[in-house]
TrEMBL record:
It is a multi-pass membrane protein. The chain crosses the membrane at residues 41-59, 71-93, 99-119, 126-147, 153-174, 186-204, 216-236, 248-267, 273-291. Keywords: Membrane, Transmembrane, Transmembrane helix. It comes from Streptococcus iners subsp. hyiners. GO terms for cellular component: membrane. This is DMT family transporter.
Length: 302
């Protein structure tokens, strides 16, 4: 197998593993574990493991980051607004809807990043971008209302948390961009996760939350922390080095599709035809934007 094909395969595996994390979160919430405790454990454990990996593979980047006060301040903002709030919002959206719906709503993020970029650069969106925006709005409408103008098909809190998770996911992409370019993603994400975990743990006093560790909850924690965060992120990083960041982002967008499949398979979730139409619209919007970026990159390389 060539390096590019191997990179394609492992990046797809990373996206599928991310899809499992949301369903694992839904499973844990269903067993009575609080959103705050899941968020705290996910960020703390993943941050420690990723920092340990960084200390072995990219020690210079980590030490340089720790010595730069301004960069550390940026990582703190990223930890709070791009990691802690995003994970809390995403899991709250799952609690009020389900893993697949929350994941698809979170994938409205590229539309928000597109809007931010257009405003920042004072550029009008292209025709493809306009189509993507319209598809995203239509998809959200179908998920939220099932086509009925007079009532919501999901709870208002579920919709609000889902949209807020998309906003914080956009911040997750925008806030650390410069420090990642300078110090590498592993050091920035690892440190950000640890900081975010500490913020959630201390701010929400999650040690007071009941924790029942049995075989079921351990299975769920392995899914969301081990497979859906540590494994997925490290494999995705390897895929990025083999196929490039644009290709990797495009391939990793299999996550919401995987989340839908896992939700049906593992937790017996049932979706209506209107749910599926809305999800397809949002996925098409994300795919169009990703393909546009891919084609631009390929053209510039060529």
């Amino acid at each position: 197998m060539t390096e590019k094909r191997w990179g394609t395969l492992i990046t797809l595996i990373a996206g599928i593993a991310w899809g499992l994390s949301g369903v694992s979160g839904q499973y844990l919430i269903g067993r009575g574990m609080s959103v705050q405790l899941i968020t705290s454990m996910r960020l703390m454990v993943s941050g420690l493991v990723l920092l340990g990996l960084c200390a072995v593979t990219a020690r210079r980047n980590l030490l340089a980051l720790l010595k730069n006060g301004r960069a550390l301040l940026t990582v703190c903002f990223f930890a709070l607004f791009g990691l802690a709030l995003n994970q809390l919002a995403y899991l709250q959206a799952i609690a009020y809807t389900n893993a697949a719906t929350a994941t698809v709503l979170q994938y409205l993020c590229p539309i928000l990043v597109l809007a931010y970029t257009c405003l920042k650069d004072r550029q009008r969106p292209t025709g493809v971008e306009v189509i993507s925006i319209v598809l995203a709005i239509v998809g959200t409408f179908f998920i939220a209302t099932h086509g009925q103008l007079t009532e919501l098909a999901i709870t208002p809190l579920g919709l609000a948390w889902g949209l807020f998770s998309a906003l914080t996911y956009a911040l997750y992409i925008i806030l650390p961009a410069q420090v990642i370019d300078q110090y590498g993603s592993l050091s920035v994400i690892g440190l950000g996760m640890l900081m975010g975990g500490l913020m959630v743990t201390l701010g929400l006093q999650t040690w007071q939350e009941p924790l029942q560790l049995d075989s079921g909850s351990m299975f769920g924690l392995v899914g969301i922390v081990g497979v859906g965060t540590i494994f997925a992120y490290t494999v995705f990083l390897k895929g990025v080095t083999m196929v490039g960041p644009v290709n990797a982002s495009l391939l990793a967008s299999i996550e919401p599709v995987a989340s839908i499949i896992f939700a049906v398979w593992l937790v017996n979730e049932v979706f209506t035809s209107m749910d599926l139409v809305g999800m397809i619209c949002i996925l098409l919007a994300v795919l169009l934007i990703s393909l546009k970026d891919f084609l631009i990159t390929e053209k510039s390389i060529g």
